[in-house]
């Protein structure tokens, strides 16, 4: 049961010293109760008080860590149902599935396909972060050998295996990479829990229906294992969606900590061989509440819309997406190439740089610090002006780095031309078209 602000206030130091950033202990207590700040932001709460409050003020969903090194991922830790209430914190991770029931050729093709998707978008690496290795008792391929091959890719593994002995053998060859053992059922949970605990890995809980899942999680918690993820995959798409939403709702809205774990959604089970449906469902479960989404394959066709969606969902809507201010040479530009400038709002940057690349004209795109705002908003807010450009030119020593003295400015702020020329003597300021889509023709017509 979540604590109220008054309960927290009763245990607070009542110094009203403001060191936590809140004007009073009461205000701080209210924020802690809403989950808006961590209780440790106050240095004066006694350890005793913190211990009393920690269970009740902990996030409704546990944060679980899997993988190691650069492949370590945090899952869960969410506090809200909707992203507009507060930022979602742990982005959905995508896995591609292998199975020992696949032929050797199919396995090789799948393994070769996984590293092919690997690119950067707005400073974030987009690639298949996890590999799901499914065990089928009828599979002709040796499961442990398959796990070894999958581990060689260097991605975090999920072992989909409900056979305790096979799972132990597989863990023996991959436990150092901190995989997930997705194999606890109502029948085997005690042995699986012991195997996962001994290997130091997270245990995935599966069940025939949501009630079975709940009972198994409760039983595992009674054994002392809270290092869990919940496989919400049902027999159909409808059931999978209902399970995934109900688990999240139970944790966040109803405060039921037994469902307060990250989820795995296995689309291969509910939409096998239908990549169009899997792509659509992966988008759905990125928004509604898959911590890990397992797919049959990930090519650029699936990845580009999906990763773009994920990047938008798992960002703070109150903080604009920005790119690093600086000089971006495009199309083999050098110090003599013409310059263009625009703002650091990520969408503006990608639109403009995409059109510039399409033009093939060597040019230096100079991105100034405009607080991550779009051109007109930055101009209206005083973050894009002749003064800010002059300041940026000095800070970055643009004139020391670039010999060209031609600068194209966004058409929407044509009004700045005269002021910029006054602030940057020797520069010829040229006005670009109002829309980025017109840049290719504009640059080509300049015959640079
Ligand atoms: Fe109260 Fe602690 Fe905040 Fe000081 S830092 S105002 S004692 S809650």
TrEMBL record:
Name the UniProt record assigns to this protein: CO dehydrogenase/acetyl-CoA synthase delta subunit
NCBIfam families found in the cross-reference section: PRK04165.1 (NF003195)
Sample GO molecular function, one term: metal ion binding
Organism: Marvinbryantia formatexigens DSM 14469
SUPFAM superfamilies: Dihydropteroate synthetase-like
Native organism taxonomy: Bacteria, Bacillati, Bacillota, Clostridia, Lachnospirales
Pfam families from the UniProt entry: CdhD, FeS
PROSITE patterns (alphabetical): 4FE4S
Domain 4Fe-4S: 1-59
Keyword ATP-binding included in the entry's annotation: no
Key words of the record: 4Fe-4S, Iron, Iron-sulfur, Metal-binding
